[in-house]
Specification:
This protein is of the alpha+beta class and 474 residues long. The protein contains 24 helices and 13 strands. It has helices spanning 10-22, 31-37, 53-63, 112-117, 144-150, 159-165, 168-180, 186-195, 204-215, 220-230, 232-236, 238-241, 257-269, 275-283, 288-291, 305-320, 326-337, 340-343, 351-361, 365-374, 381-405, 416-423, 429-444, 451-464; strands at residues 26-29, 44-49, 70-73, 78-82, 87-92, 127-129, 138-139, 152-153, 183-184, 248-249, 252-253, 293-295, 299-301. It has a seven-stranded mixed β-sheet with strand order 3-4-5-2-1-6-7. It is elongated. It starts with 9 loop residues before the first helix and ends in a 10-residue tail after the last helix. The structure holds cytidine-5'-triphosphate. Cytidine-5'-triphosphate binds next to strand 2 and helix 7. Residues 26-153 form the Poly A polymerase head domain.
């Protein structure tokens, strides 16, 4: 197969020219070749030459006029040139495993064939020649083209060899399957089952990159099911595996919270590409196993799983090496609040309950509602319809209350500073108490969040605390 017509960017001709002059056999290789055949445009291009990738890169830089920056990674024998819109990576063909992100320095140079042998999957081991006499010819020793047609992820060598070279490839197999909607070849999958323990030697930083890519695929449940069936999920995220299973006592059983969670994740993924909102879906019921109780009258309960789940979130994020700042707090907040909108469905709910939720959710209220809608996984269509209509009602109620009371981004009109100067107080507990009471009064609807009413109420609170006004605000 000749793919010269697919190498549209002039950079390929330039590199071919330079390689010829340098006497270096050179190929485009790996993900870029796969993506050409999948018609997925890509900006990262890997070049492999038989010889020094660094020397080739230096010569290419010169022939491109020298204006693009060249980074050399001597230890790994690689070099990168960043042009206006492409990242060109150069590497010498090698005999041992190809790991761009490993800390292992390269040891032995090899031929193109050696290099292809040590790549992760047949679909990632194809090369396109840039050599003058065979320009554009595809070199596909393991049937990568066939695998793309059959939508198959398969290791080029015995899976044991490929996975021992770099156990992260087990995660990568599932990540590619999930992103591309491919199957994993049966022997390759068996290889993962046999070698899942080896994932332990891989750094969590590399694992989480793959897990997040699975989460961001169109139907992440597929990737998670593969992770679960091969046993890798238990290694990397045991809390999620703990959700699996159904208990029955006296004919009363609960739903399988693992499959439910995956359904919620798929549901929300149809509406958002936000990684953290998808993480909130994954985490929303994470504390169900820890809070599960059986009660003769009502059957299975999971009381407080939303609070416990919020408390578990930082620990899980820390261990998984997910960021601990704003994103974690956002996920934690959604986990904590995920049952609240359902509680607002009842007719006799007061405005103050709506105000409290608006206040606590703030700008994340729409994301919370999206999570709640995704959380409806009943198979009974009538039920689903009814629940969704209930949420519509809650939402219009929220809009009305927010319009009236503006609590979503509630900022108190009376500040701590004002309280201190009015009553001549030093910083201390009393200020906090008064501020809290003012906030409560607004949320309860006792006063509106505007100066006159809040000021009047502050004076009243001052009297209750036995305080004298030393400097009136007006
Ligand atoms: N590779 C490998 N083993 C790894 C990582 C990478 O064999 N653990 C090889 C594969 O041939 C892969 C190439 O290096 O195609 C480039 O790796 P990378 O950029 O990580 O992946 P891509 O295949 O380009 O895919 P993506 O851009 O989606 O990550």
């Amino acid at each position: 197969m000749n793919l010269a017509h697919k190498l549209k960017d002039p950079v390929f001709k330039t590199i071919s020219e330079v390689a010829h002059n340098e006497g270096l056999e050179t190929y485009v290789v790996g993900g870029y070749v796969r993506d050409i055949l999948l018609k997925r445009p890509s900006k990262d291009i890997d070049f492999v030459c038989v010889g020094s990738g660094i020397e080739l890169a230096k010569a290419v830089k010169k022939s491109l006029g020298g204006q693009y920056p060249l980074s050399v990674f001597k230890n790994f024998g690689t070099a990168m040139i960043k042009t206006d819109d492409l990242e060109l990576e150069f590497v010498g063909a090698r005999k041992e495993s190809y790991q761009r992100d490993s800390r292992k320095p390269i040891v032995e140079n090899g031929t193109l064939e050696d290099d292809q042998n040590r790549r992760d999957f047949a679909i990632n081991a194809m090369a396109i020649s840039l050599n003058k006499d065979s320009y554009g010819e595809l070199v596909d020793p393991f049937g990568g083209v066939e695998d793309l047609k059959e939508k198959l992820i398969k290791t080029p060598l015995d899976p044991k060899t490929t996975f021992s070279d770099d156990p992260l490839r087990m995660m990568r197999a599932i990540r590619f399957a999930s992103q591309l909607k491919f199957d994993i070849d049966a022997d390759t999958f068996q290889g993962i089952i046999d070698m899942k323990d080896r994932i332990k030697i891989i750094s969590q930083e590399r694992i989480i990159v793959e897990l997040n890519k699975i989460i961001l695929s169109d139907e992440p449940s597929y990737g998670f099911k593969l992770l679960f069936y091969c046993g890798l999920l238990k290694e990397v995220f045991p809390e999620l595996v703990a959700l699996q299973g159904v208990d029955s006592i006296e004919d009363k059983s609960h739903k399988d919270n693992f499959y439910h969670t995956l359904q919620v994740l798929d549901n929300i993924s149809q509406n958002t590409d936000s990684l953290w909102l998808r993480w909130a879906a994954i985490m929303h019921d994470i504390a169900k196993p820890a809070t599960k109780r059986f009660n003769k009258k009502v059957g299975w309960t999971f009381h407080g799983h939303e609070d416990k789940g919020a408390r578990m979130t930082p620990g899980i994020f820390r261990r998984l090496k997910l960021p601990m700042g704003e994103s974690m707090r956002y996920v934690q907040k959604l986990v904590k609040l995920h049952l609240r909108p359902i509680a607002l469905v009842k007719d006799e709910i007061t405005d103050s309950a709506v105000r409290r939720l608006l206040f606590e959710a703030g700008d994340d209220i729409d994301d919370l509602m999206m999570l709640c809608r995704a959380d409806i996984t009943s198979k009974n269509n009538n039920k689903v319809k009814r629940y969704l209509q209930n949420f519509d009602k809650v939402e219009s109620r929220m809009v009305a209350v927010e319009e009236k009371d503006k609590v979503r981004n509630f900022q108190p009109v009376i500040t701590g500073q004002m309280i201190m100067s009015t009553f001549g107080l030093k910083p201390g507990k009393t200020i906090g108490d008064i501020k809290e009471a003012l906030k409560e009064a607004v949320l309860e609807g006792k006063i509106r969040n505007e100066f006159d009413q809040a000021h009047e109420y502050m004076l009243e609170l001052g009297r209750e605390h036995g305080l004298n006004v030393v400097k009136p605000l007006r």
